[in-house]
């Protein structure tokens, strides 16, 4: 993978910035930040510095109004009539079209439905059926585990299918691709280290072996420009509750390239994917297009939260988001270097997502000590301390202050306090 | 089916009531209604009489406060910390335990997750795996179509499986059960006609043939006492947005009898069903118990709506609900008889759910003419006019008034007005 990932540069990558070296410089960067006004779009609690937007995005101020309108007006007053009158029925598509520009998808290829896990299932089964003479699904050991679990579920279900994993000390991608490879499922950004795959190069490599490319965009959608169409991607899935700020467990999105849609045959044949759901016919006829990935009735309260959150992105330039994300990360990395922290995230900007991760044997306690001061990052087993950078609301000054706090915690070893011990774990 | 359905009586069935014969009698029944105070728990728009709670339940007044608390406090202020601090993680279980008493389930057998369609998929695959020497799934032609579509999706996926349908002019249940039957999936209440199956008798019959019984409770949960444990049911699924009033597309519930849980092997192996999801292990180990049916991250905005809606049921006696439901239906049926309407719903109380359906060749236009007057029932192809009766907020007086309006519409043939024509249909 390393060879592939570094073999080309994505168009949006900027040169490595020089990180600010004082709080005053940080304040100057904040004052000049073209995205600074977006911070007011979010509720950010007093006394909290939030570096976990890569796990759960902060609450947009407009969410409450959008959800209230849906509940009080559309449901409360409109009742059943709102399925037509408030355009609830087409919402998996209409909201999908609001996600589409964020992932480089032309119209008609993106829907909102189910969870990432369920969508991966639908896409993997479809991929195996589209490559009936090939039985191997390739993924990576360090992908978010639900992707592996779902792949395992598919493998047990489809005779003669198998799973091969790349990464860590295992083989690289090129060495496992072959005439039996049906599809490759990779995470655009690694949930632990923040490593970014080169979408264009990897997709191209997979296609050269006749396989389908499926991207998991959970940790990149909303944090950088993504070009699914331009890269020729076959399928993609992603969540909306990280950098898209749609709320805990908000519905997922699913992208299917137009060229594949009419050959898609996924087994969750729910009525929402039927060509004429209100004909109530006993036989299933899939609707033409990406809608055939829909299954059950869409959850409107959660959809209302998603719709409001996407309004925040309406005039946002994702290239500006990416540039700020990389600059914020440079600051975290530079100060981490000063502290002698073990950086798990690639140093090259073009190989990074929007979070920075350090490894530390006492990472769990250090993260707890930071949280006690209102500085919220998170810990991922076995020893990863993650700091998510959300350019829509993260400032350079607060990164500076957080790294000051980190320096203090490390210098005084205050993380050794017993209240930061992991429950049930002897450290 | 007819033989089975009429062969026994469910314990909660009351004798046929005598329907009121005047509006004054209706007002007296309303005044004596032990459930009358519950009407104030709901937002019911001015000028609307709502008979579609069997499709989308009305908005509970407490929903907005519950959702607001979740969004502003738990998400907005608590941010990522609320997965633990506000007990989001266990919510599929904790809310499941609030549904459990409504369906006659002891603790530890009910979870909230996904949609009905996705849950049927999980249960059907599990059932086939639990009966590896049997390949036939039995359902009924008149079940809500998503059940058939999902069964078809499963059939295509599992080699040597097949689907057999009972009902209408087809065979009855007993004649299709045999040594190859793996499972039977039936709807407790028929979504069009309101016909109620005898859960105890049907489950017993299915078990005598060695097959598993799966009930779809979409059209009965919240409208009557249900006794899953007492009837020895194996699995059940149901939605929460009809008689449970949790909001459009709210998450579904899934019941798995305790005796089966550890042999369940369903293929949607999402991380929420893992024994230790935060260990982030590459291999899947299912959590013990019903939790192994969970897949993706639960949608908390929709969960908040469900939680608030279930609070309404806390002190509700479902036997009282059932008694009022049957009495309301007697009134609809009696007045329909006077109008010469063609009743599609069984006349015997013990064979009815909580909606009453008439067939009429101009049913679509008649329903539209009623809706124009604020009387909201619905139409289901080809010719079914449905009137859902929700004892928590439906009064005898409004049923009386609605049937007056129906009489007027039929007498004057006002439904012939061109604005009630179905778009694109010549009538």
UniProtKB/TrEMBL annotation, chains A, B:
It comes from the Bacteria. Pathway: Cofactor biosynthesis; NAD(+) biosynthesis; quinolinate from L-kynurenine: step 2/3; Amino-acid degradation; L-kynurenine degradation; L-alanine and anthranilate from L-kynurenine: step 1/1. The keyword Oxidoreductase does not apply. The modification N6-(pyridoxal phosphate)lysine is found at residue 242. Its cofactor is pyridoxal 5'-phosphate. Residues 1-20 are annotated as: Disordered. It holds the Pfam family KYNU_C. Its EC number is 3.7.1.3. One of its GO terms (cellular component) is cytoplasm. One of its GO terms (molecular function) is kynureninase activity. It catalyses: 3-hydroxy-L-kynurenine + H2O = 3-hydroxyanthranilate + L-alanine + H(+); L-kynurenine + H2O = anthranilate + L-alanine + H(+). One of its GO terms (biological process) is quinolinate biosynthetic process. Keywords: Hydrolase, Pyridine nucleotide biosynthesis, Pyridoxal phosphate. Pyridoxal 5'-phosphate binds at residues 117, 144-147, 216, 219, 241, 271, 297. InterPro entries: Kynureninase, PyrdxlP-dep_Trfase, PyrdxlP-dep_Trfase_major, PyrdxlP-dep_Trfase_small. Belongs to the kynureninase family. Catalyzes the cleavage of L-kynurenine (L-Kyn) and L-3-hydroxykynurenine (L-3OHKyn) into anthranilic acid (AA) and 3-hydroxyanthranilic acid (3-OHAA), respectively. PANTHER family: KYNURENINASE. NCBIfam families: kynureninase. Homodimer. This is Kynureninase. It comes from Catenulispora acidiphila (strain DSM 44928 / JCM 14897 / NBRC 102108 / NRRL B-24433 / ID139908). The lineage of its organism: Bacteria, Bacillati, Actinomycetota, Actinomycetes, Catenulisporales.
